[in-house]
Specification:
This protein is an alpha/beta fold. It has 15 helices and eleven strands. The termini are far apart. The structure holds pyridoxal-5'-phosphate.
């Protein structure tokens, strides 16, 4: 293994140099066509190469073309810079390479601990077995909604695992127009059908309107359907809006509906005392899906499913007969709580990321991001050539360029073209979205290394790119 040791040292240097150089470089640049083609056409090596040669390829062909999300001026989608502690831990986790499905080895017990830590961080009740790490929130949502489906079916005397959905009245779930597409994917996969997901009217700020929700539930019941699920958001992807959980939780309790909260991006916002009040009632949900690979900066991939009642999960996925489970008395295998059988050692990078900053450090990082987001909102609002399109609830700022004298259609064309124009300039990275019928830019702040000066650069870049685009029209 002496060549491994030498190469590993070189790799540590390479990765350290890479990380140190990120802030000074462009955020993102389109790939050089020849470099892109070289990757696409890479031939299958007929014979092996030395580790050093592989490092040279990584240094020469891979590291120079990053997505950009390690940079302090990357504001796109919801992609974080990797926490350095998580990067280190990923190496050790790969070296051990267990399957965290179950058994008596460190990774399995560490996952139990970090799932509890995550629940403690966001203030969600945690009973042993009440959660697991997943590839992301898309997978966590499938896991949680499968449990919701099973409970609803069981209540009308139906075993959905054995009999599927046949014979059940349509199971209806309630979402909003701002609900992430992963909920629809989950509903489709689980055989619920996306038509059975009702988009409930939202208020002006994009939050579920409880009165409208109540009316929809009553109408569906009257029509013989079986309402069973409400999906609320702890930070929507477009505007970062957080639903008012208390009235929704009251309604779900009355109507025996499963309350699932999508906290993929925003659940950790609850750590900021300035906005924690928005999350009141989050702890009343039946399940919460969230992404340590977003605001916490755990290197991809890492999502987490948390459920109030661990038995709902185990009852949904376990193939171990319950008499054997009882004999064992323990929590059993993670593979009894979700879909994956062979499971990666995700918990070490979560452990390292959280332990490196501690609860207080993470809370300070989150508060830094929400403060910067509010500041960006102020800067946008203060510029007549820009327009803030939604209140800043968490750390997403939705806005658009609005140069004087352009009609709505021209504004939409301009703002649709703006994200790529800004990205190509290389000094800041922002992405776009559609809010109602308006093309918008959205800046997501989840990198604690971002500074107020970076906000100025972002807005300067947006103004310059907008001026270039309008001059060309
Ligand atoms: C990212 C995101 C998802 C999807 O999570 P993945 O980790 O990408 O699977 C769902 N909901 C929201 C609000 C998100 O930001």
């Amino acid at each position: 293994m002496s060549d491994f040791r030498t190469a590993a040292r070189a790799a540590a240097e390479l990765v350290s140099d890479y990380l140190a150089a990120v802030p000074a470089g462009p955020v993102w640049q389109p790939m050089d066509p020849a470099a892109r083609q070289a990757l696409l056409d890479a031939p299958l090596p007929p014979t092996g190469q030395e580790l050093e040669e592989l490092l040279a390829v990584i240094a020469g062909q891979v590291l120079p073309a990053p997505m950009g999300n390690g940079h302090p001026r990357f504001f796109g989608w919801v992609n974080s810079a990797p926490a350095p502690a998580g990067v280190l831990a990923a190496l050790a986790a790969a070296a051990m390479n267990p399957s965290s499905a179950g058994g008596d080895h460190a990774d399995v017990h560490l996952e139990r601990a970090v799932v509890r830590w995550i629940a403690e961080l966001v203030g969600f009740p945690h009973r042993p077995g009440g959660g697991l790490l997943t590839s992301g929130t898309s997978m966590a949502t499938i896991v949680c909604l499968a449990a919701a489906r099973g409970r609803a079916a069981a209540r009308v005397g139906h075993d959905v695992r054995a009999d599927g959905l046949a014979g059940l009245p349509p199971l209806v779930g309630y979402v909003t127009g701002e609900t992430h597409s992963c909920v629809r994917k989950a509903a489709e996969l689980l055989g619920l059908g996306s038509r059975q997901l009702r988009a409930v009217p939202a208020d002006a700020e994009g939050r579920i309107d409880p009165a409208a929700l109540r009316a929809e539930v009553a109408a569906d019941r009257a029509a013989g359907r079986l309402p069973f699920l409400v999906v609320a958001s702890a930070g929507t992807v477009n505007t970062g809006a957080v639903d008012a959980f208390e009235p929704i939780a009251d309604l779900c309790a009355e109507e025996e509906l499963w309350l699932h909260v999508d906290g993929a991006y925003g659940a950790f916002g609850v750590l900021d005392p300035a906005i924690a009040h928005r999350y009141a009632g989050l702890d009343r949900a039946d399940s919460l899906a969230l992404d340590p690979h977003k605001w916490l900066g755990v290197p991809v991939d890492c999502g987490c499913a948390l459920v109030r009642d661990p038995e709902q999960l185990r009852g949904t996925f376990s193939l171990v007969p319950s008499y054997l489970r009882d004999e064992e008395g323990g929590l059993g295998w993670f593979s009894e709580y979700g879909i994956e059988q062979t499971r990666p050692f995700r918990s070490l990078k979560v452990w390292a990321t959280i332990a490196h900053r501690g609860r207080d450090g993470i809370a300070a990082d989150v508060a830094h991001c929400t403060r910067l987001a509010r500041r960006l909102g102020e800067l946008v609002a203060a510029d007549p050539a820009l327009e803030l399109l939604a209140p800043v609830d968490t750390s997403v700022v939705a806005f658009r360029a609005r140069p004087a004298g352009l009609a709505e259609a021209e504004l939409n064309a301009l703002n649709r073209a703006l994200p790529l124009a800004v990205q190509r300039r290389g000094r800041a990275f922002v992405t776009g979205t559609l809010l109602g019928d308006r093309e918008a830019l959205r800046a997501c702040l989840i990198n604690a290394a971002t500074s107020e000066a970076d906000l100025t650069v972002l807005l300067d870049e947006v103004r310059c790119a907008a001026a270039e685009l309008t001059a060309r029209q």
